[in-house]
Amino acid sequence: MPSTPRPLRKLGFLTIGLFDAADPARGHESTLEIIELGERLGFDSAWVRHRHLQYGISSPVAVLAAASQRTRRIALGTAVIPLGWENPLRLAEDLATVDILSGGRLNPGVSVGPPMHYDHVKDALYPHSADAEDFGYERVRRLLDLVRGKPATDFSGVEGFEVFSDVVQPHSPGLGRRLWYGGGSLGSARWAGEHGMNLLTSSVVKAGDGDGPPDFAGIQLSHIREFRARHPDGEAARVSQGLVVIPTDSASPEQRARYAAYAAERLPRTASPQGPARLLFAPDLVGTSEEIAERLHAHAAFREVDEVAFALPFTFGHEDYVQILTDMATKLGPALGWRPTAG
């Protein structure tokens, strides 16, 4: 098997945290149990998705606050919080609070753009300012400044019995270097690098308008290299890859058949760019850990990273996730040169 120039240093996973509307507590508990399992298996990080007005995690910061009290080592991330739904000042306070509670383990990932189905939700979300809201990079810059300790107000000092600060409290000094941007375009990779963020890549990129057949790995590789070229840390700048990966080493025959059917149903969207945004999807990687490792070592973008947050499939059951994570930690990770974190 070919070697990779960047041996895998950090292994993480990403879950959507689906739940049944009739029993949302069970779904949230399942997510917390999966994160606890990840820590026991030695994973370096656990990430949760963000879904509004759907049957997934709508408040990842709250879920990770709970996870921080049930774990002690594993890093906890969001992939990603869409900032179009957020007030950067309030979000900065929540993130700093959870980072303090977790002992400095929070890794917030964010993205920009208008909220999904904005025309249908804007009256509830921004009833008086819907047409004036800016959903571009300025929203991220505001969050960065506030998390990193720039003043939020020109007022501070003592008023009566109360003491006021001009910066977000609590202030968590290391959090500013653990902010990630979830980017799938060359422009977002460039912006994230210029502003000293970390870069979260996923199984989706913007294909652009180039000629010839689309090459997902090549496009993602160009994003990673552009990001590092613009980042103050250069080649040491952190990039995490988030492909959908499903090892089957210990899976039952029924599970293997279901996993293969899931990947096959999603495969057609990988053949060409989808929609007006020309989104290109990577194929899901299903097979034994040896087979998946071989495919990853041949992936041009994977060869440029030393940390991953492999995405768990959306619609599988709790026991499926237990099997997949166990195989990732005991079979796939070691095949990629990774070793579990002790303790």
Rounded to the nearest angstrom, the radius of gyration is 20 Å
CATH class group: Alpha Beta
Give the low-pLDDT segments. none
Helix content: 25-40%
Category by helix and strand content: alpha/beta
Instruction: Quote the CATH topology.
Output: TIM Barrel
Could you explain how this protein is built, in words?
With 343 residues, the protein is α/β, with parallel strands linked by helices. It has one domain (10-152, 166-335): Alpha-Beta Barrel (TIM Barrel), CATH 3.20.20. 37% of the residues lie in helices and 16% in strands. It contains ten helices and 14 strands. The chain has an eight-stranded parallel β-barrel, surrounded by five helices. Strands 5-6 form a two-stranded antiparallel sheet. α9 crosses α10 (318-335). The longest helix has 18 residues, at 24-41. The protein is globular and about 70 Å long. It starts with 9 loop residues before the first strand and ends in an 8-residue tail after the last helix. The mean pLDDT is 95.
Write the layout of secondary structure elements.
Layout: E1 10-15, H1 24-41, E2 45-48, H2 60-68, E3 75-82, H3 88-102, E4 106-111, H4 118-125, H5 137-147, E5 157-159, E6 162-164, E7 180-182, H6 186-194, E8 198-200, E9 204-206, H7 216-230, E10 239-241, E11 245-247, H8 253-266, E12 279-281, E13 285-287, H9 289-297, E14 307-311, H10 318-335
Parallel strand pairs: 1-2, 1-14, 2-3, 3-4, 4-7, 7-8, 8-10, 10-14, 11-13
Antiparallel strand pairs: 5-6, 9-12
Helix pairs in contact: 1-2, 1-10, 2-3, 3-5, 6-7, 9-10
